[in-house]
Structure formats: structure tokens, C-alpha cells
Amino acid sequence: MPSVEIELNPVDFVTIGTIGPKGQRIFHLQAGKENQLISLIIEKEQAWALSEAINDLVDDLDRKEPNMEDVNMREMDMDLREPIRPMFRVAQMGIGYDDQHSMIVLVAQEMTAANEGEEPGVVRMWCSRRQMRALSLHAMDTVEAGRADPKQNGRLVYYWT
């Protein structure tokens, strides 16, 4: 049995955000339902891969079942909520679709040490297509906002054509 098993069905919100200066940011996947707030630590690459996977899934779903709900990012509150107390670091994530309820599930599994012997924690977040489309767009913006200037890495990169 997992050390933590949480089901947020459905979520009130889901977002990805960062804490810290550019180059040292810590990425957080966060979701909430009513008074329950879940924060998880993810890697930048996981945020990017999740954004891509969600985008592909929602595009595929929209081709099969057109969804007339547009996502206006100005109307969406994609900020991290306080307090930010991560439950665990995510090892892997997966997404799926429940066509009976028209919900997308995002499953995050805890990273554990191989010798601990206990099952990793699992958080399941059930979201609408609109919430997931917004998460995909916001996650990609968050990843791309990291290092706009290559000189911030402490090295100079020259480009010429």
C-alpha cells in the first residue's frame, strides 16, 4: 500500500509554478479541492513533458468530441497558493481520460529510495479539459520563462549566421 494515496476528484484548480531565482527555480505541481491543498516538487523537464502530453491528449479529444470551451488565460488563476509545503518529489507522472465522466486524470507518483521498501505515494488529480489545457499552456510558459538570456548561466554564448 502506498505511504500516501490522495484522490482529488474533481480538483478546484491545478497549476505549475516556480519558487526561486532563474537558474535555481524549484518547480511545483499544485492542485486543490475545497480546503485540501497538495503541492509536489517536479523537475523542469517533467513540467515540459507534461505540457506536451496534455496538449496532445486534449487535441486528440477535441478532434473526437469538439469542446467549445475556450481557455482565456487571463480568466484563469494559475498562481501557486500558500502555504506551499511539498508532500514529495515526483518520480513519474501519467495522464488518462475517463470518457464516462469526461475527466482527465493526472497521476503523480512519489520518488522513493530503492532500499526503503515501502510503496511510493500517489496523488490523482481529476480535471476538466479546460483546466488541463490551461495547465499545459501555463506550464510551457513557466518553463520558457526560465532563462531568456543565456548570459545568466555565467557563460557567454555566441551566435552567428
Description:
- The chain is of the alpha+beta class.
- It has a single domain (5-146), classed as Secreted effector protein pipB2 fold (2-Layer Sandwich).
- Helices cover 23% and strands 30% of the residues.
- The protein contains two helices and seven strands, in the order E-E-E-E-H-E-E-E-H.
- The protein has helices at residues 44-64, 129-144, and strands spanning 5-8, 13-19, 26-33, 36-42, 90-98, 103-110, 122-127.
- Helix 1 (44-64) packs antiparallel against helix 2 (129-144).
- The longest helix has 21 residues, at 44-64.
- 27% of the residues are buried.
Could you give a short description of this structure?
With 161 residues, this protein is α+β, with helices and mostly antiparallel strands. The chain has 2 helices and 7 strands. The strands form 2 sheets. A 4-stranded mixed β-sheet has the order 1-7-6-5. The chain has a 3-stranded antiparallel β-sheet with strand order 2-3-4.
Average pLDDT, to the nearest integer? 88
Please give the order of strands in the largest beta sheet.
1-7-6-5
Low-pLDDT segments = none
Number of strands: 7
Tally of distinct domains:
1
Major sheet attributes: 4 strands, mixed
Helix share, percent: 10-25%
Which class best fits the helix and strand makeup?
Answer: alpha+beta
The second-level CATH architecture is 2-Layer Sandwich
Element order, helices and strands?
EEEEHEEEH
Radius of gyration: 17 Å
